[in-house]
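Quick review question:
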């Protein structure tokens, strides 16, 4: 029987072996051209999933945008799908594609992301990217303009509102059905958690209303062809209403039920976007590592949970999908201490000594790294899951060791990894001139 000392020595030996393998493969990351080898490895993949270890880190957004620009320019990707709400992101899509009625500038477009956590998309890093994308599209025909879309399911009220505005002048019968759905949700103020609690206590739901609305819209969808994307957007908002109702209704059951509704919705939306963009479509996804990295390589699978990374990998051939994780050793981040709290710049402490991030810090001697994990899937040095940092929009650094690490089989979770050793907080848009934060609101639910 092995002693604790022997186990400790074995763990150290294994870490040293992993560190040496990373050193032999990793490229120091300082400038865009340092991504050359990674882009070559991506090859002809149709789905490139780009993660992030937090929702509030400047460098994750910066390098994700740099890599995305190169993929669009050099490999002809069709659109970016993000972990964001469909109505808000559709306004961005109209802006970058120069559609009629778009906002005057990127700042005005981004300021309309006003539901907590606003900083996740309402930040100067995103403004820089969408201005670049608008300029890129300026040289393209309508068919070849690159889009920007929200994949998420949270926007129950906003999607119903968008439907009402569109259908009022397009399809009066569908408009009346949308009114029925709105009336059903009105007692809850379109607040998803209130709806979840109410339907848990009293088994009366709004499922029939939103399903009937979607069915009616789908039966007449071709009549909505009033601009290049009206058909897609109308059906998408109806789908959000259906799946958001389901998401909030399953929320109170606990377990992975509501998580699965959400990630399956995001994948369904992703596949609809691929169909919309044609046979040669290629997608880039921006989402948290917990959505991008294959769930089967974590303990999520034991809880019956799936995610984007797993579902896309199951639905498509291995060479069609490329998943990239992002991580950090220490720095600062934008987050709230509790849901709905004002955003703060928080300290991200040095990673746990037995974590993946600590190994990368040592392997890179404090430098940023980029490398692929191809060929390591059956390597015995990776046969034990590493603690892997994950920070959400809610963060309490003093309790990080108790809930911000996900045990992960890294080579199975990602095809490549980008490590930024020391990171800094995002630059939010929703700040008053004196630097005080505007009170965050979330009128349409969580």
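Suggested answer, residue by residue:
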């Amino acid at each position: 029987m092995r002693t604790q000392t022997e186990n400790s020595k074995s763990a150290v030996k294994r870490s040293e072996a992993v560190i040496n393998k990373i050193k032999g493969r990793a490229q120091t990351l300082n400038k865009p051209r340092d991504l050359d080898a990674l882009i070559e490895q991506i090859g002809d993949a149709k789905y490139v999933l780009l993660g992030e270890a937090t929702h509030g880190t400047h460098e994750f957004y910066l390098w994700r945008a740099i890599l995305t620009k190169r993929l669009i320019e050099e490999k002809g990707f069709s659109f970016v799908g993000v972990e964001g709400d469909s109505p808000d992101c559709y306004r961005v899509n109209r802006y970058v594609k120069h559609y009629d009625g778009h906002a005057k500038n990127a700042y005005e477009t981004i300021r309309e992301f006003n539901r907590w956590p606003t900083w996740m998309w309402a930040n100067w890093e995103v403004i820089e990217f969408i201005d670049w994308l608008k300029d890129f599209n300026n040289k393209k025909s309508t068919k070849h303009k690159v889009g920007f879309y929200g994949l998420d399911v949270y926007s129950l009220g906003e999607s119903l509102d968008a439907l009402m505005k569109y259908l009022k002048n397009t399809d009066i019968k569908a408009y009346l059905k949308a009114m029925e759905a709105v009336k059903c949700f009105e007692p809850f103020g379109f607040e998803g958690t209130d709806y979840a609690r109410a339907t848990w206590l009293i088994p009366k739901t709004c499922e029939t209303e939103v399903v009937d609305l979607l069915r009616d819209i789908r039966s007449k969808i071709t009549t909505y062809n009033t601009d290049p994307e009206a058909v897609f957007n109308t059906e998408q908002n109806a789908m959000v209403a259906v799946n958001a109702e389901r998401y909030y209704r399953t929320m109170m059951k606990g377990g992975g039920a509501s998580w699965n509704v959400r990630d399956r919705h995001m994948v369904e939306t992703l596949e609809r976007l691929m169909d919309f963009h044609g046979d040669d479509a290629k997608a880039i996804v921006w989402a948290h590592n917990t959505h991008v990295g294959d769930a089967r390589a974590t303990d999520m699978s034991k809880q019956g949970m799936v995610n984007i990374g797993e579902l896309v990998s199951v639905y498509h051939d291995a060479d069609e999908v490329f998943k990239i994780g992002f991580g950090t050793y220490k720095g600062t981040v934008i987050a709230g201490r509790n849901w709905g709290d004002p955003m703060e710049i928080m300290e991200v402490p040095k990673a746990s000594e037995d974590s993946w991030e600590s190994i990368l810090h040592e392997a890179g001697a404090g430098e940023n790294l980029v490398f692929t994990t191809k060929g390591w899937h059956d390597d015995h040095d990776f046969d034990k899951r590493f603690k892997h940092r994950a920070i959400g929009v809610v963060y309490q650094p003093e309790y990080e060791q108790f809930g911000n690490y996900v045990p992960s089989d890294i080579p199975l979770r990602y095809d490549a990894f980008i490590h930024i050793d020391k990171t800094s907080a995002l630059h939010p848009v929703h700040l008053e001139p004196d630097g005080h934060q505007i009170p965050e609101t979330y009128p349409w639910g969580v």
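Why it works: The chain has two domains: 13-75+287-446, 151-281. Residues 151-281 form one domain.
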